[in-house]
Specification:
- The chain is mainly α.
- The protein has one domain.
- It is built from twelve helices and two strands.
- A two-stranded parallel ribbon has the order 1-2.
- The longest helix is centred in the C-terminal third of the chain and has 39 residues.
Length: 347
């Protein structure tokens, strides 16, 4: 490839410009934030669906099972205390916030942040989390007879709402303003298929990975363990980029899950450094701002400011990812055609 052909190729889309465009799109179409806004308000002000009563009713059987597996009494006591201190603040309605396609939740993100960094003081995962500005909300308890059915219904609801949410945001990033959004049936069906596939991949690859990681950290010295963690981190970055953009081809190009993941892998193959930095930027902004939005106590009406801010920022970052995917795939296609036309022909 000669230098002149490279110089004629336009530069790839920038990360900052994609994020700015996404924010501008959502700022001019504020109705796109309604789903995360309403669902976060429901989690905040609505009834709580909990399972601590169910655990208390079967705690004796669970402890007996742990003892039969030979778990030491000290560990059993620690696990029991953890469940007793955590389950009263777990709202099963949060299962409606699904991944990788789903409506973004301030409360789920801040709780994940708390679990990763327990020293950070996030107000959404403490005893006050059972309260609301007007007092204690109604408490609903699951039973052993309905927990499976309710869980499946909540997850299915999350998939449907997630498909509609992604469909709405992707429509903002369309290039041809005469286009219509993809059919609702296609969006929901592909969302369900992709979510099930994601779950299968997580089970078959995630469990062996974490088992191997646990063994490595226990038997190796710290230096070797850190080297292995660094290598796995680089490998994970290569995987997270195509997985992150897996859904984008479905909602922007009307593809199925197989075509979408293939195009996402192709994009990651040729644009990994830039795309990896973009995904890392999105994650840092998402979880960093989740800490900011969760500063107000949940029993204060100031939390409404955090919910509004989170709903806007999360939707804008999602729109930015669609803009980046749209522009990067178009640039990559133009680059391929450009290089093919300017490829030296044999004499």
């Amino acid at each position: 490839m000669d230098v002149s052909s490279k110089e004629n190729l336009p530069p790839p889309p920038g990360i900052i410009n994609s994020i700015k465009t996404g924010f501008d799109l959502v700022a001019s179409n504020l109705t796109a934030i309604l789903l995360p806004l309403l669902l976060n308000l429901f989690i905040w002000l609505g009834p709580r669906l909990q399972m601590d009563a169910l655990f208390n009713s079967i705690k004796g059987n669970v402890v007996s099972m742990w003892q039969a597996f030979g778990i030491p009494a000290v560990e059993i006591q620690q696990m029991t205390q953890w469940y007793e201190s955590t389950l009263p603040y777990v709202n099963l309605f949060s299962l409606a916030f699904t991944t990788p396609v789903g409506v973004s939740s301030l409360f789920v993100n801040s709780n994940i942040l708390y679990l990763i960094f327990p020293n950070l003081s996030t107000n959404t995962f403490d005893p006050a989390a059972k309260q609301a500005p007007f007092g204690n909300p109604p408490i609903l308890q699951v039973t052993e007879w309905n927990i499976l059915t309710l869980t499946m219904l909540l997850v299915l609801t999350g998939w449907v709402l997630g498909g509609l949410y992604f469909r709405t945001v992707a429509w903002l990033a369309r290039t041809n303003h005469d286009d219509r959004p993809i059919p609702v049936s296609h969006a929901v069906l592909q969302t369900i298929l992709m979510s099930v596939s994601w779950g299968v991949i997580s089970v078959f690859f995630g469990i062996p990975f974490f088992t191997f990681l646990t063994i490595v950290l226990r038997i190796l010295n710290p230096i070797m363990a850190n080297l292995i963690l660094l290598f796995l981190g680089l490998a994970f970055m290569w995987l997270i980029v195509p997985l992150y953009f897996w859904s984008h081809g479905i909602f922007l190009k009307r593809q199925n899950i197989f075509s979408s993941i293939w195009n996402s892998l192709q994009m990651a193959r040729f644009t990994l450094p830039t795309s990896g930095l973009f995904v890392m930027t999105i994650f840092l902004l998402t979880f960093g701002l989740a800490f900011l939005w969760s500063i107000p106590p949940v029993n204060s009406w100031m939390m409404l400011v955090g919910i509004l801010g989170h709903s806007f920022i999360a939707t804008a970052l999602l729109a930015s990812s669609f803009v980046y995917y749209r522009d990067m795939t178009a640039w990559l296609q133009n680059a391929m055609e450009h290089f093919k036309l300017n490829r030296p022909r044999p004499v």
